[in-house]
Design a protein that fits this description.
Strand content: 25-35%
Distance between the termini: 49 Å
Helix content: 10-25%
Number of domains: 3
Shape: globular
CATH superfamily of the largest domain: Domain of unknown function DUF1254
Largest sheet: 6 strands, mixed
CATH architecture of the largest domain: Sandwich
């Protein structure tokens, strides 16, 4: 990927991507500093719009957040992505320096919509294109950033639980320096044929073993779902990361006496980014069960009550995903509803009921379709989260089953 190019897209309903947000415009600048040297990611101030997101290394670990929830706090700034072994004395003034311990990486940036109208969508895209990406060596006269519209491009980032995982791992091992904390994996990886400077070419027997190992790993990771504590006492919504993991992400996994890599592995089975400071720009709650602790079944009907005065500065949303793949439900006419949904029906007190199921129980504006052939999960997003969400004086109700599958 050239250093002056950024992918721009809304999350398409057929995208096999892990828990994407259908209510924002995504921008993904990819970078490689190995030969290019430091790279500048220039973020505009939050005046005519809002960008939020994170810059991540090749291992998908957050280096820093951008925008109002990041270092620039909405003032905008020039983030300087610094490659491994780069001398600090070489960093010029006027930049927000971010040391990256891998050469390659990417940023996941969202342009937040004021509403879902065509006009506000166009404004969000135009505002996003004020972002710039260029080499530090070009800073005196940076070239125009090229934005590539990927809206109609099928981007499959679902996890392949087979030999392709190890092929991807081998590409990283060949391209990136070993992190000191990961050196203990050098010899174990050699036993399966992954070694720096050598081709990864397993024989048929080894390929079968590795394919089986990935399915076993998937099963082990899935057992962790049952260990996540609820966000509300006695409820079934949960924040999908423990306090220990949250702290480790914020400290680059350098927290003393803590290294929760197993939980991080589980988390990345259904996400592909982690905020450095989650809770500043956005927050998440997830549900996989109804109020009686039963799995959410696509053939049944459900309702969730969203109380009035949701504690958000921007918007709240509820999005449905396939329970097994954590991707959008295929062939669904839409996959979520939000406080910005046109025609959303509210009650006299300002609260909202959202319905889930294979058929609409009433107004489609308040209904999210499900696949009757499989289970589903729900991710609640809170953009611009406020105090009442965290002190739990405002509570999102559990998902209630209202009808059986037909």
């Amino acid at each position: 990927m050239q250093s002056d190019r950024v992918l721009v897209a809304a999350a398409g309903l057929e995208e096999p991507t892990l828990t994407p947000n259908p209510d924002v415009i995504y921008l993904m600048p990819f970078f490689d500093t190995k030969d290019a040297g430091p790279i500048v990611l220039e973020i505009p101030p939050a005046d005519e719009g809002v960008l939020n997101g994170s810059v991540m290394n090749y291992w998908q670990a957050a280096i820093e957040d951008i925008g109002p929830g990041g270092v620039d706090r909405g003032q905008g700034g020039k983030y300087l992505i610094v490659p491994p072994r780069y001398e600090p004395d070489d960093i010029p003034t006027g930049y927000i320096a971010m040391s990256c311990d891998t050469f390659q990486g990417y940023a996941l940036v969202r342009s937040v919509l004021k509403s879902l109208s065509d006009n506000d969508t166009a404004q969000a895209v135009a505002y996003a294109k004020r972002m710039k990406l260029y080499l530090l060596s070009e800073a005196s006269n940076p070239p125009s950033t090229v934005f590539l519209d990927a809206s109609d491009v099928l981007f499959d980032s679902a996890i392949p639980y087979d030999i392709r995982f190890f092929e991807s791992l081998n590409r990283i091992v060949q391209a990136e320096p070993w992190l000191e904390r990961d050196r203990a994996m050098i010899d174990p990886l050699k036993t399966i044929g992954i070694e720096r400077g050598k081709p990864f070419d397993p024989d048929e027997r080894t390929r079968r073993v590795l394919n089986d190992a990935m399915l076993e790993a998937k099963g082990v990771l899935e057992q962790r779902w049952a260990t996540v504590p609820p966000f509300y006492e006695g409820g079934h919504w949960f924040f999908p990361a423990s306090a220990e993991l949250h702290e480790s992400i914020g400290n680059d996994f350098k927290t003393r006496d803590s290294y929760p890599v197993d939980e991080r592995g589980w988390l990345y089975t259904f996400i592909f980014f982690s905020a450095k400071h989650v809770g500043r720009a956005q927050y998440y709650l997830m549900a996989t069960e109804d109020d009686d602790g039963r799995p959410l079944q696509g053939g049944a009907s459900y309702r969730v009550h969203v109380p009035a005065n949701a504690p958000v500065a921007q918007y709240w949303s509820l999005t449905v995903y396939n329970r097994d793949t954590h991707t959008f439900i295929r062939n669904a006419p839409w996959v979520g509803r939000s406080s910005q949904t046109p025609g959303l029906q509210t009650k006299d007190d300002g609260s909202v009921d959202i319905f889930f199921g294979p058929t609409a129980p009433g107004p489609e504006s308040n209904w999210i379709p499900t696949d009757p052939e499989g289970d589903f999960e729900v991710l609640a997003r809170f953009y611009g989260p406020q105090k009442a969400l965290f002190d739990k004086t405002w509570c999102l109700g559990d998902i209630e089953r209202t009808g059986c599958s037909g």
